[in-house]
Amino acid sequence: MNQRTEDIDVLVSEVGPRDGLQNAKGIMPTEDKLKWIETEAAAGVLEIEVGSFVPPKLIPGMADTGDVVKGALKVEGITVLALVPNLRGAENAFKAGAHKVTIPISVSEPHSISNVRKNHKEMIEEVRKICELRDSYPEGKRPHVETGLATAFGCSIQGVVDEFEVMRMAEAAVEAGVDEVGLADTVGYANPNQVKRVFKSTRAAIGNKLGSAHFHNTMGLGLANVLAALEVDVRTFDASLGGLGGCPFAPGASGNIVTEDLVFLLESQGLRTGIDIEKLMAVREIVTAALPDDQIYGHVLLAGLPKGFKAAAA
Amino acid sequence: MNQRTEDIDVLVSEVGPRDGLQNAKGIMPTEDKLKWIETEAAAGVLEIEVGSFVPPKLIPGMADTGDVVKGALKVEGITVLALVPNLRGAENAFKAGAHKVTIPISVSEPHSISNVRKNHKEMIEEVRKICELRDSYPEGKRPHVETGLATAFGCSIQGVVDEFEVMRMAEAAVEAGVDEVGLADTVGYANPNQVKRVFKSTRAAIGNKLGSAHFHNTMGLGLANVLAALEVDVRTFDASLGGLGGCPFAPGASGNIVTEDLVFLLESQGLRTGIDIEKLMAVREIVTAALPDDQIYGHVLLAGLPKGFKAAAA
Lengths: 314, 314
Fold this sequence. Notes:
The structure is a homodimer.
Chain A: E1 11-14, H1 16-22, H2 30-42, E2 47-52, H3 65-72, E3 79-83, H4 87-96, E4 100-106, H5 109-116, H6 120-135, E5 144-150, H7 163-176, E6 180-184, H8 192-206, E7 210-214, H9 222-231, E8 236-239, H10 259-268, H11 277-282, H12 284-290, H13 299-303
């Protein structure tokens, strides 16, 4: 998607402006979203999920996603990613010029029906139509289509999710034409052994179409799961700046892993993210100023970097 | 130390009644400490650090440690462990009947001098005297002597701590006569690669005298570090119930990893701890009732166990 990815070992995909804001109390003005995106890009983040193309009456904070995409396209060097739940959303995202869209599909069918009122067959059909739309664009201008397999590690409705079902859904998505399949621990049930097992089996099914890992820190295992995923060669991770959108102190907490903590872990392991962690930590000021009623958090943010900390060599 | 350890894969050593209470705001009455210890033992915890033999005027909350040790000795099946900073403390611990004592030695000499006003040579001399005292007990009644190497992964005064210095101090402690050497990430600087490296090199130096891992969650890496330590065959971990004694929400937070979260991680990895996690989670009620001004936390505690969660087979 961009030139600089060859200089890094791991791609950190910032989902805060979408996943974080979608679950925040406050609504962030468009100009603040763009300031956030610009500043985080200047810290070295290479992929940002800037919003979602959903009906504004469902999620008012995402009503400006078209403008955010257009603004973000002016920021040099980043992949501008947007979530789209259906063909209508994809049409809008492609029109706005998003480099990449991500379509969530719940591996747990009860979760899928409860969330988007579509069963697996209907969701795959929607994905197929989005891929056909993508293919109507001339090569070189064709956006990248990702599917994020939600509840891939368990579901709060269904409970255990069978890993063969993850493989099957990944294969169905690839057969429908997606460029990439990510696996998401939507409810935070994943554990390290399971992460290794499910990523390996999914890779066995779809090879290099296997993409990002999206972990939550619900059970405190978010970064342990990252470590496990690294061991089976996963090299793209979603995270939310300051853990925005999910407070881990509240019952049922379900926040994304924290971008700053993820970058700290990766750099401490000698894995280059291309991100300047001190500049990244400074981005929080934009977020807290724009969302006074929302809480951000993160361990590195509270404790500060260790004395003598060295990032991975650039 | 006890019979049941053969039925488990990993030993969880509860440090809350010592490390947690030593850093808590409130002072817990002796009877509540004993209720805590009994109830946690009934949940299956096999080793508990019940207090420290330090001057009461320095830490008033530990003034009753002699009585706590005596009471804890009546609880069946647990190893009763106490921290001792010096020979005087060890004399008191042995007199009270503690099964095991742990002596902290800072690998960072500036930290040692700042904390206990002793340099390395003086600390090792103190350890030697404690081991001589141990040897004056008849075999079979001889307490177990552990050294915990503090700041083994970094120090907030000195910064980086050389891993060869960790090996050297471990060798010196073994040469002075200790039965076991644990490694402690006192200030929460450790990262997973470092954990693997330092435990492996220390094992190369002292073989099976290498004991427990004591991690803090300061940077959010506590459980990732546990995962790394498991990969290099560490099988004893310290943790504090409800993270007592260190609040991760405050700047400079430095709390121990949370016992409930540790047990959840281990059991999710198929590693038997012998601990009933639901009974363990219920122990918090005793702690919160006795310490109304202290906050306890933990991810599993807040989120609850995942739907369909299965512990490792007994």
